[in-house]
Amino acid sequence: MENRILYFEQPGKANTEAVLGIAAERVKALGITQVVLASNHGYTAEIARRIFADTGVKIIAVTISAAYSPEGWTMSAKERQALEAKDITVLTCLHGLTGSVNDALSDSAPAKTVCATYYTFGQGMKVAVEVALMAADAGLLDMDKEAIAIAGSSEGADTAIVITPAYARNFPQLRIHEILAKPR
């Protein structure tokens, strides 16, 4: 099998449309019916809704934990309602890999090692895996089907992967089948 990976010179928001475009191509090619993506204020989810409009794909937007509201990073009720009105499922919960009790109590928690490993591929790779774990644990993903997980570095999207999802408690069962896009 031959497939292409889209590499970006710089991470960040400017890559969002291209990432979602290549993800839409793979949705059609592979018959994928579920996409999980990181979206703190709805920007990436809104663009995804437009790009995936004719695919029938279920979009799950995972926000940053409410614990980050002092920083202004959390989705407002108005932003959430706007997405949900467009049939986008919105999930806010404890982070699958970071921001947990382990982070507060230990500098050597296993999750930190996992995060550091994913960060070697870029911030978007770590977040893509994390939002997939979160959506799985919330019961929002069909665990018998592949999904596309999309995330980025700070704002927007710059990374997309095709995965077999897993629950956090079964983390070693998560499989990354394809890297569709990432910063170089």
Description of the structure:
With 184 residues, the protein is of the alpha/beta class. The chain has a single domain, classed as Pyruvate kinase, C-terminal domain (Pyruvate Kinase, Chain: A, domain 1). 34% of the residues lie in helices and 20% in strands.
SSE arrangement:
Elements: E1 6-8, H1 16-30, E2 34-38, H2 43-51, E3 58-62, H3 77-84, E4 89-91, H4 101-105, H5 110-119, H6 123-137, E5 147-151, E6 159-164, E7 175-183
Helix pairs in contact: 1-2, 5-6
Reported for the largest beta sheet, the result is: 7 strands, mixed
- The end-to-end distance, rounded to whole angstroms, is 23 Å
Got a strand count? 7
Q: Could you say which overall geometry the principal axes of the C-alpha atoms support?
A: globular
Rg value = 15 Å
The CATH topology annotation reads as Pyruvate Kinase, Chain: A, domain 1
Mean pLDDT comes to 91
**CATH architect. name:** 3-Layer(aba) Sandwich
CATH class: Alpha Beta
Strand order of the largest sheet: 1-7-6-5-2-3-4
Structural domains: how many: 1
**Counting H and I runs of at least 4 residues, what is the number of helices?**
6
SS strand fraction: 15-25%
Poorly predicted regions are none
Secondary structure category: alpha/beta
Tell me the helix content. 25-40%
